[in-house]
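Chain A, query sequence.
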Amino acid sequence: MAFNSYSYLIGLAAVVALFWALPARVRRAYVLVLSVAFYASWDWRYTVLPFAICLAAFLFARMIATRPEQGRRALTSGIAVVLAALAAFKYRAFLVDNAAAALAVFGRHPAIPAVALALPLGISFYSFEAISFLIDTRQRRVTTVSFTDLAIFVSFWPHLMAGPIVRVRELVPQLGFDRPFDERMLTRGLDRLILGLAQKNLLANNLAGFVDETFLPRAAALNTTVDNWFAAIAFGLQIYFDFAAYSNMAIGAAQLVGITLPENFNAPYHARTPPDFWARWHMTLSRWIRDYVFFPINARFRGAPGPLYASLLGTMALVGLWHGAGWGFVVWGVMHGVFLVLYRLWEAASQDRLARWRSSAVVVAAWRLFTLAAVTAAWIPFRAATLGQAATMMRTLAVPHGFRPTYPVNFYLVTILAACVAALEPFLAQVLSRIESRTPTVVHWFVLRPALYAVGLLLFLIFDDRDTQFIYFQF
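Chain A, predicted structure.
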């Protein structure tokens, strides 16, 4: 049941109405049962998996809390169990194939049995949430959490499939579901929900067909330089609007039942530098990696340049691998690691010899342009079917391979339109906020907001495409 399906939207209205009609004391059980049913609507066979991971995390967390002398061992064991489950379902084929390829180099060809396991939806997200719970328990940032709280935390349906990645200390205190109804919950929730519907159907889905065509393996050698730049831009916009749509709809659905989830995007293509991009893109993953991987590693080396740069590359390779079991994702992550290292080197140099140039308009504009071009180029190995295809397409970005557009003009026009929306997004939000603050209450409630909702729903209905799933469901 996808967030942008008619069945989900109709069901959500009934679910929210019943939630507020129920006494506060039974809302927790209601949300838990509802979340299980929602996950089962995708594949009932894997319904037990998030709760099994939740139970393992709960038991190891209890051991950490009650047996401090065994805390480190319990933490390591708990993380190992969660990662083993993640590897079994998501990375098994990748590991087996690469092990077989490595053995083949030495002339060995062992028979490795193939076991087909479907990728459970959301496993990357709730696995990271379980790991953060274990680490926070070890660091005493989280005190006693009941199994019911942890089960609702992991399975809460708005963020279960594709985030935002939430931490126990952010969500569990809200799980009493005892907040009184406030009409602002309704309006804020509907604002985000309808925005997400429009982003998904109007922008992401309209780009999807063109992206699929330009990234066909046979097209790699035929695309011109213009084609491949537009292909990279189109996919970068597609994945942004697709994932931002999901995040907005998740945040909106949670708000309808009085729960606040963390933000996940902040106009990432307005980034001024590579670090700024990661402060704006998939923000909950970025801070998870920063707090639980990057900072602990660098704390050991006290900021020494060599280990710092190596950890940046390794951490971003991990970010790439988290997205998918393929070398293209790793290359994408390493490329971003290189961009971050380059910026760190620039910072180190500009503090001394180039300090007076650091804030000049030319330098600021150059970093903005570099960040946008680098992030765009990196989307090619992320999306390409093979590393060979990615190499062919990326080579033409720098080495001219013809400048004549070869696809229908609509591809270029739709891409430019989506780019304009991304460019204007923060300014449009500011304009709407100003209009809202200066509009009389009656006009705002009975004219402005209904008109915006009607336009958003109309765009959703006109451009509805039931066959296009959210991209991050595959991660």
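The longest helix spans residues 71-105. The radius of gyration is 24 Å.
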